[in-house]
Amino acid sequence: MNRRRSTIAEIAARAGVSIPTVSRVLNNRPDVAPATRERVERVIREAGYVRSRVANALRRGSSGIIDLVVPDLDSPYYFEIIRGVEEVLERTELRMALSTTHDESRRERQWLRQVIEGATDGAILVLAQGQSERLDELRRHRIPFVVVDHRGELGPDVPSVGATNWAGGRAATEYLLSLGHRRIAIIAGWPNLRCSQDRIAGYRAALEEAGLPIDPELIRPGEFRQQTGYDQTCALLALPQPPTAIFAGSDLQAMGVYAALRAHGLRVPDDVSVVGFDDVPIATMVSPALTTIRQPLAEMGRMATTMLLRLIAGEPLDSMRIELATSLVVRESCAPPPSPDR
Amino acid sequence: MNRRRSTIAEIAARAGVSIPTVSRVLNNRPDVAPATRERVERVIREAGYVRSRVANALRRGSSGIIDLVVPDLDSPYYFEIIRGVEEVLERTELRMALSTTHDESRRERQWLRQVIEGATDGAILVLAQGQSERLDELRRHRIPFVVVDHRGELGPDVPSVGATNWAGGRAATEYLLSLGHRRIAIIAGWPNLRCSQDRIAGYRAALEEAGLPIDPELIRPGEFRQQTGYDQTCALLALPQPPTAIFAGSDLQAMGVYAALRAHGLRVPDDVSVVGFDDVPIATMVSPALTTIRQPLAEMGRMATTMLLRLIAGEPLDSMRIELATSLVVRESCAPPPSPDR
């Protein structure tokens, strides 16, 4: 096919850039100026260029399929990751095969069998709980894989992408402290999850730095779901001295916090401030819009896919474990605490 | 493989039901009692049964892939459909290849080429706009397909699944009328979409039946997005006689309605009632929880997949065009209009 005749050198010449620059664009590296990236991508589009290593793989008898497996399809959270994977794959000739395991070992075995028998070029796994068995099986069948390990459970020897949970926990707490809050509650995931431990550690670090005591009553574990946010908020409001700010472990939990506060006749942020975690689309849709710690889920999906394409091409990874930065996104759900004399 | 030796007759015997009942369960027919369905499904799981027609297809050299193409991955709406497709496929040996077109013809051509060259057993298309060219191309390559045609644009000769938009438009309006509202606004999609036309027709029918005039000022078109809900609500509130109830064209639009009302110091439902359309998960997460017209998106995905599996197996469809019922889901966002003497 004509489209395969384009080469990186031709593209570099047409775009007026160096060959390494074209490579950087193809590999989704950050160190390319936006205008340059756009010019190169336009030339690629116009020339109908197909990544040569992928084209090579197709000639070698590649399946043309990348497998993405997620625990479930019931949260905006997973969809953000899926979107990121898709954004990278749509620039290739590869299709995404999407599967869910529902955390059932039967489904996991079925998926492994499909992937191994049905042929795949590589797999991206969003882990529910530590499932090292599955990873061993993929290794044994020489299937390249990368893990989106948002929970931080894996060691540095597994190709994985995570987020800086500790820094996120600290940033949320520091922000609430800066507004004047002193009674700050944190709703987290279950204590056995690394991401929960890390966020709570960040929360504690910020409080300790401010010279404030840690009140174990204000640290509430649970599921990353709306119901947990609701139930734990009710429990927090029943304390002799309720918190003036609640830092939720997910935006979905924060929606439960909103509902519980509303049920108690309390207003956000006038009476109680709320911070979420994740920054899924719902955060901008609710009123007041949710201030949250952005976990770059789509970027994590993109990064994992870029790493997997390198592994498939037999290229070395710069690092096996990458953590993307979380960041505070200020919207409308936080304010100074109500004055005590109201 | 051992798992392939199980037959429908064996399953029927083990579950203590008739062979047609097992078939009905396998084909996801509604006419099976829930307890019976569960018993049959448990036997199927325990026996490791694989749908024989799919197993046959695999032996015939099937690709093992069903393609699902959606316009975008930016809405909970598409994710509900994806979830439905996955729920049916996870009971088969087929994997789902998920692609997006972003409404770009370049991406559509790329997808078609991938599907045709890369092998597929069949395709489910969620149409953005009428794209009959693509359907012709699939026909030419003898690729079975079903369209999830939520916008109602296709004729009865294309295998498709839709929803009853007219009935949904009427049900929402009748509900608001029953609460005592007389100034009811509708925010819809663009007027060229069949689904918009149908919902507005349902809205008009309800008003006319109640002997109320149609005020063109209260019919506001736009995108199915939050921003449209926000902008059109601001426009409605600027009318000399603003509406006391707003029926939004999507739950995302309704989120924009909520935000605009809040920005104007108006409460839902005390000052203005709001009804959404779709019933995506966000409807239960906001406060007040959104009363909405449920469009059974996951069921539409399931139904399309079941139809496609029949087409792949060479079985006839009961009907080429199926419309699933919409239904009113009452939550907290509607109340009688405020009394005029307040």
Automatic annotation (TrEMBL), chains A, B:
Membrane-spanning parts = none
Question: What protein name applies here?
Answer: LacI family transcriptional regulator
Q: Does the keyword Acyltransferase apply?
A: no
Q: Which SUPFAM superfamilies match?
A: lambda repressor-like DNA-binding domains, Periplasmic binding protein-like I
Q: Does the keyword Isomerase apply?
A: no
Which keywords has UniProt assigned to this entry?
DNA-binding, Transcription, Transcription regulation
One Pfam family name is: Peripla_BP_3
Give this protein's Gene Ontology molecular function annotations. Answer: DNA-binding transcription factor activity; transcription cis-regulatory region binding
Query: Where do the HTH lacI-type domain residues begin and end?
Result: 6-60
